[in-house]
Design brief:
- By secondary structure, the chain is α+β, with helices and mostly antiparallel strands.
- The chain folds into 2 domains: 75 residues, 2-Layer Sandwich (Gyrase A, domain 2); 151 residues, Cyclophilin (Beta Barrel).
- It contains 5 helices and 14 strands.
- The strands form 3 sheets. It has a 7-stranded mixed beta barrel with strand order 5-12-9-10-7-6-13. Strands 1-2-4-3 form a 4-stranded antiparallel β-sheet, with helices on one face. The protein has a two-stranded antiparallel ribbon with strand order 8-11.
- GO terms for molecular function: ATP binding; hydrolase activity.
- It holds the Pfam family CT_C_D.
- It comes from Kriegella aquimaris.
Amino acid sequence: MSNYSISIRPYGVHTVLVEWPNKVEEAILDDILLFMRHLRTNCLDESLWEMIPAYNSLTLLYRKDPIDFTTFSQTLQDWYSNKEEAVLPRKYLWKLPVCYDLDFGIDLMEVSGILDLSIEDIIALHTKSPYTVYGIGFLPGFMYLGGLPAELEVPRKAQPRPKVQKGAVGLAGKQTGIYPQISPGGWNIIGNCSVPMFDASKENPCFVNIGDKVQFYAIERAEYDLHKIEGEVGIYKLEKENWNA
């Protein structure tokens, strides 16, 4: 198994940050997930350690005592250099509905002008291919989705909104994502997803994992309203497929 050149640095007295090359690549993300699986299986007590993967890094937080960084960083480097062959965690492709109605896509017209694309072209490009979940954060359940077509790359808004609606689907730079709850935000909003991204009452509050895939498909307003009702009564069925089975 080939290894990357990694760096390890303290990130507080209880935390270390392991960084891979500063690139957005699935191969790097897969290596991070494999190393995390190796640590969980062979090296670290998961009840004492929190592990947070994202893009090109893995954050390790020890819940008990301050970390002896000098000793632990060398041990961590040895673990990485000698990590065993492992199988990636199962990945899923989640198919998520988005209503691109202008009542929801409040920045669609502006994005259309900036990119010199019709709204129909924006929707077609946005739903064309799966995205990779490179990180979950900012808000519980907020997915950072990479793989946005270059034609849809648009800067964040210069002035963030104080209130973005739950389910809002946005564009920012090379990424797209869904706001899991009402919050401030500076992404360009092009639609709304009718599926809740985060439910604190469930054993697994966020059904999507880092490394999974997400593909959007367009729905009309009537179908969006139906999905919302189905979600409220608990009968909405998520669409998913095995990605790496």
